[in-house]
Amino acid sequence: MEPMTLPSPPSVEREALALRQVEAEIRKVIVGQDYLIERLLIGLLARGHMLIEGVPGLAKTLAVKTLARTLAIDFKRIQFTPDLLPADLVGTLIFDPKRGEFEPRKGPVFTHVLLADEINRAPAKVQSALLEAMEEKQVTLGDTTYLLLDPFLVLATQNPIEQEGTYPLAEAQVDRFLMKLRLRYPSRAEEGEILERMLVERDLDVRPVLDRERLAALRAACDGVYLDAKLRGYVLDLVLASRDPGGAGMKDLAPLIGFGASPRATLFLARAAKASALLAGRGYVIPEDVKEIAADVLRHRIVPTYEAEAQNLTSDDLVERLLERVPVP
Question: Dihedral sign, CA of 242, 246, 249, 252?
């Protein structure tokens, strides 16, 4: 690779230490779930919305609420239901009879961190109302557009096993999430610790350790993490191979991938790799950072064909094959 110009080690270590303090506060409440906690921090650094998928009881909501408690910024939660209206999310105009004018009544989307709990329970019109907020960081009420707070982060959860009363997310909306996380059950040891810790209900003291200014500094440090030109090429090769496997010398994958990743995936994969490097205490990205985060960034952007489904192949399987066969610099 080309010679690297790295940030000074003390500055990188200082930023990594701040992130570890956030992690330590989260671990006062959350047992195990290393994967989830690390990815939440990566999303926070990379300015990306997160979609968290898992069966009930895996601490999805609790982890997000605990993360919000470690940040000295606004947090709101909205429970998505089939009867939810767009106005319940973004707000509406209320007529003031004294003034004879309509005044905006802003909804819960006007916050720094929004927990969209069970997002797939809301109908399409509500999900589409979230699109402008997620992508443009603004909301339009009547003929006026209002900017959302900065930072603005959507952390959405969904249950993959229930079908009744749910609405699949549109591809356009799913693509706006930086990562889609899939959670698994805890180990026996972890579940034993959960039992010990949570058998008697108690209030665990989670303190805020990051304010807006400190978070902005961490994000600026993440932007400054060095990404070598060869690794940028590796990111491009992965994304382009998902769109045209045949052109990348993987003709056997061509019948298995219906649609590949969008250009947004290229940008998100690079950003997430930088955040992963900073979290590891490095001022530069290595190939393992890209490979470790690739499945989370690509799994909801690669659509398997019917032939792939007939072979019981998921998008995760296809991403794994891409990672095995795209040359690493």
Answer: positive
pLDDT at 195: 82
In a 3-state reduction of DSSP, which class is residue 138?
A: strand
Give 313 or 161, the one with higher predicted confidence: 313
Q: How confident is the model at residue 103 (pLDDT cuts 50, 70, 90)?
A: confident
Name residue, tokens 């992965």. 238
Rounded to 5 degrees, what are φ and ψ at 138?
-155, 160
Residue ranges with strand state E in 8-111: 49-53, 75-79, 91-96, 101-106
Smallest Cα–Cα separation from 120: which of 72, 166, 187, 178?
Answer: 166
pLDDT at residue 227 in the model: 93
Assigned architecture for domain 9-210: 3-Layer(aba) Sandwich (3.40)
Mean pLDDT over each residue of the chain, to the nearest integer: 86
Other CB atoms closer than 10 Å to residue 61's CB: what's the count? 17
Element (H, E) at 189: helix 188-198
Residues of the chain with CATH 1.10.8.80: 225-325
**Six token digits for residue 16:** 């990594």
Q: pLDDT-based confidence at 291, cuts 50/70/90?
A: very high
Rounded Cα distance, 281 and 303, in Å: 34
What pLDDT, in 10s, does the model give residues 50-98?
999 888 877 888 888 888 888 888 889 999 888 888 888 888 888 778 7
Where does residue 200 fall: left (phi above 0), alpha (psi -120 to 50 degrees), or beta otherwise? Answer: beta
Residues pairing with 303 in the sheet: 259
Write down the pLDDT at residue 180: 92
3-state helix, strand, coil in the chain (%, to 5): 45, 15, 35
CATH class of this structure's domain 225-325: mainly alpha
Query: How far is the C-alpha of 34 from the C-alpha of 30, rounded, in Å?
Result: 9
